[in-house]
Amino acid sequence: MFSFRRFATASPLTITSRAFSFTPRAALARMQLIGRLAAEPELMPTSTGKEMVRYALGVSTGARDASGNRPTSWFRVASFSEGPGRDLLLSLPKGTLLYLDADARMDTFEGQDGKTQSRLNLVQRNFEPLSRPSGRSTGAESDVSAAEEPLSGIGHS
Question: Where is this region: Disordered (predicted)?
Fold first, then answer.
């Protein structure tokens, strides 16, 4: 039987003597998503001269409505990967089903209308293509419900 009294009276030295407890906790804001690419990823220069790949991922959830559509959330993603990983990402077509592991952060900025806005931005850690889009349609008529995706804000911060 566990004795709470015995545990509660343990010396503080015993509780704080674990080596991993001496370092401060790191902040953690990560997301894992499975969704479809809203458009082909784009290679963009940054203000520091590095290149990044940016793309939008649409994640549909919930039940379909009367018109057969499901609610979709759109996420802007930046990737600073290089080499074969970047080449693979850039080769993926619109509509590709993608698993994403990313760091998340909220950025605040002044919009064109002068009002302060906040936006969630994701920085890719890892990704894995799960499937290519179906061959039923191509281009703007893709099977992905990405037609209404607001691409204007991708990478804006």
Answer: 126-157
Three-state DSSP at 66 gives coil
Neighbouring C-alpha atoms within 13 Å toward the C-beta of 36: 19
Give this prediction's pTM.
Answer: 0.65
Tokens representing residue 112 in the block: 């064109």
Number of CB atoms found within 10 A of residue 11's CB: 8
Domain residue ranges of the chain, discontinuous segments joined by +: 29-134
| Token output for 70 | 């499901």
Which residues lie below 8 Å from residue 133, measured CB to CB, with a gap of 6+? 36, 93, 94, 95, 96, 97, 142, 143, 144
Secondary structure letter of residue 90 according to DSSP: H
Tens of pLDDT along the chain (157 residues) come to 555 555 555 555 555 555 555 666 667 889 999 999 999 999 999 999 899 999 999 999 888 888 888 899 999 999 999 999 999 999 999 999 999 999 999 989 898 999 999 989 999 999 999 998 876 544 443 444 443 344 334 443 3
**Architecture of the structural domain at 29-134:** Beta Barrel (2.40)
In 30-115, DSSP assigns E strands to 30-37, 42-45, 51-60, 72-79, 97-110
